[in-house]
Amino acid sequence: MEKILVTRLENIVTRMENVLLKCDGSKTDKTDSPSVPSPKMSVPKSIELLDEATEDKIEQLCALSTKIGGDVNLLKNLIKDALTEHRNFVWTACGLSRPNDVGITKLIESLSKKICSTTEFKDNHRTSPFYDHICAVEAAIGGLGWVVQPKTPVPYFNEAVETSLFYINRILMAHKTSKNEHFEWAKTLKELLTKLHSYIRRHHTTGLIWNSQPGTKPTKETSLVSSAGSPSIPPPPPPPSLSSNSAGAKDSGVAALLDSLNTGLSATSRLKKVTPDMQTHKNPSLRGDKISSTNGKTGKSVSQSEPVKSSPKILWDGKVWKIEHQVENRDVVVEVKDKKEAIYIYKCSDSVIMIKGKANTITLDGCSKTSVVFDGLLGQCEVINSKSIQVQTLGELPIISIQKTDGCHVYLSRAASDTQIVSSKSSEMNVSAQLDDASEEYKEMALPEQFVTRIENKKLVTSPTELA
């Protein structure tokens, strides 16, 4: 009987010891686990540098957007969302080896959606009083695609910045006297782009750096912008994937334009040769036929009918880019591949035309409310028979000729400080130039319109009047 009791007691003691060991083990695990830091919670150095460069400017830009209100306030959410996805992509790259093209497409899908949302917002707000603000942001956000440029991210982003600066400078010039919140908004956006450009140039010169801190990844707690408390805007339809060319992408103005430009030099294969007998200036009989057909009884009905609207055209004929009859098209882009190519812009109104690459000459003929921005010219830029024109060069411009034009504003970069300006029979001409090496701001100056001529020393001497 005593042996049985002793055996039972020993079994109970053994069980109790096992229970105590398990309890001690679990306590040890719980107390020891926090002492081991998780590598996923530490912020990579690349992200710290990105935040240091841009965080303050993003906050200032959002605060000014709220102050302006309207569409700019709605634009604020698109800016925050796109920059957050951009930051998350850079962070994700810090923890991964560079994947193949399919993997890249999946990773950038979220950022691509934000970029497309900004483009759709611009397309849906063309009549907005803040359209220059919207275009400036849309161009800047498009530059976030530098993350998938393997060797040349800096030129890619710089191209987007130059496009954005075209609209930023328009805002700065429009509000330079009052220097209100619009002026500060444009100035802050410009500073943000400058800092982001500097960050890319210093830390990702030859492409986004991958796997700098293996295993790290962004979390909801470390996102740049919290989604709570921000006013919501209607979500855009899902944008197309970068891995396929969907019909939705081609519906946008930029995509459709790029599709037409992709024909390149092959477009000339469909053109017919124009012989001398088909040209009116070499065959007077053709001019006579046209005059006789409009005279007589039919002439009255023709004069009373509405003018025929010509179809818009962007055509490369082998020597000259012809951009004609563009109306309310602010997405015209022409890429020049040879410095011998010339640009002829005819009868365009309320449009913005961008010339990428250095061309030979540019001519604007019969245009109104049209803006042209180009990288630089070997020859001259000529504006004739036009009204309310804006011309901006980002590089060199030897000479600009303004003839029979009412309203022409010329923006000269620092590289075009020696530009010659020739004008005749024109009015309301202004030149804005970057004169201060330490500042990026433009100084506006008016061209004289009225002159006085005197006879001095048996010679005619002409000078601008004081009123000019």
UniProtKB/TrEMBL annotation:
Domain C-CAP/cofactor C-like, first and last residues per copy:
307-444
Listed GO biological process terms = cytoskeleton organization
Q: Which Pfam families match?
A: CAP_C (PF08603), CAP_N (PF21938), CAP_N-CM (PF01213)
Which Gene Ontology MF annotations are present? actin binding
Q: Which domain of life is it from?
A: Eukaryota
State the similarity comment: Belongs to the CAP family.
- Name of the protein this chain belongs to: Adenylyl cyclase-associated protein
Q: Which organism is it from?
A: Caenorhabditis briggsae
- State the organism's lineage: Eukaryota, Metazoa, Ecdysozoa, Nematoda, Chromadorea
